[in-house]
Amino acid sequence: MTFNKLLLSLTLTSLCTPIAFAKQSVKHISTYKAPEPIERINPKYPINAAREQREGWTKMSFVVEKDGSVSNAVVIESSGSSDFDKQSLKAVKQWQYSPAIENGQPIQQCINTVKMDFKMSRDGENGVRRRFRTIYLKAAKALEIKDYKEVEDNLEKLHKLKNMHLSESNLYHNLAAIYAKEITNEDLEIHHLNLISTNHSSISPESSYQILARKFFIQIKKNQFSRAITTYNKIKELAVAKPYLASFDDIIAKIDDIINNNDNIVVQANISDKKVWYYPLVRNEFSITNIKGELNKLDVRCANKHHVYTVEDNHTWTIPSSWEHCSLMVFGNENSSFHLIEHPIKS
User: By residue range, what is the domain housing residue 141?
Assistant: First the structure.
């Protein structure tokens, strides 16, 4: 179903009637206890980054083993500084947990993510420096008069300012996203929207809502339903979003219908400079097709299962229904692309 049809269906279809559950005996299946942190070491602030007063963030996925140690830590998204990524990985690999317990036995906990922020205390205008401000205002003025060549030149100059503060980084990515929207490049737009740290003091609640709402609608258009649901949950946390939640709830209900229908869900995937593409699955059977470039391996991480596979074009993987909350990581060369096809849920 296309995005436009999805929105149209909101005006034509009433909400589903409540489901009536028959009375039945209840059986205990299992007892589960989540892992709990014992020691979590903070990452060291890189010396050069501190000297440059550079800020950033790193988001990682990792596995908690049966002995409580951390393994298979992977950077899945970041502000772009390799030194922050390196220190984040070094720190998380030293973390220690009491392991997850199921029916009295320790088990792996394979779906864990953490975001580490690197921020410096400073006075003044949220760390926005004169050189950055000058270039930024030129880019913003050029965008206003639709001088796209001038916009691109100044955005490139901002991008080359490697020692950006988070407030500067947010301003840069927000302006770049607005420009991408102006030239109708949604891939570029959502790339920049994903790199805005919406929990930073430089972003107002109203701006956070606008950024997240824009991400939500692009994710739906691209069939990225699991990401859209994650974005929706962030929107619900914002007080300023309260007047609009009913509309979002209607769309989420339609997403649930799509996930449970008999059509394939096709998602276009592109490998970033992190050389990994991360995606939470909504179904238990999927294929990878139309590979362009080189893919090295496929990593499936579920609640308490972790498996790594080689990648073949047009191969189909079926995950047992007992493997809950599964995410996919595809490793490959930068700029490689492919289609992820999630097949209908089998009854």
Answer: 127-191
Instruction: For residue 169, give the H/E element and its range.
Output: helix 166-182
Please answer whether residues 148 and 107 qualify as being in contact, where contact means their C-beta atoms are separated by less than 8 angstroms: no
Considering the domain boundaries, does residue 23 fall inside one?
Answer: no
Question: Strands, DSSP E only, in 148-252?
Answer: none
Which residue matches tokens 């007992």?
Answer: 322
Query: What token pair was written down for 81?
Result: 């500084």
In whole angstroms, give the CA distance from residue 184 to residue 188: 9
pLDDT (tens digit per residue) in 21-50: 344 555 544 566 778 889 899 999 999 988
pTM above threshold 0.70: yes
Under DSSP, is residue 234 helix (H, G, I), strand (E, B) or coil? helix
Q: 123 by DSSP, 3-state: which?
A: coil
Identify the CA nearest to 277 among candidates 290, 289, 268, 286.
268
- What is the separation of C-alpha 216 from the centre of its chain, rounded to a whole number of angstroms? 11
72 and 93 housed in the same domain:
yes
Q: How many domains does the chain have?
A: 4
The values of phi and psi at residue 92, to 5°, are -65, -30
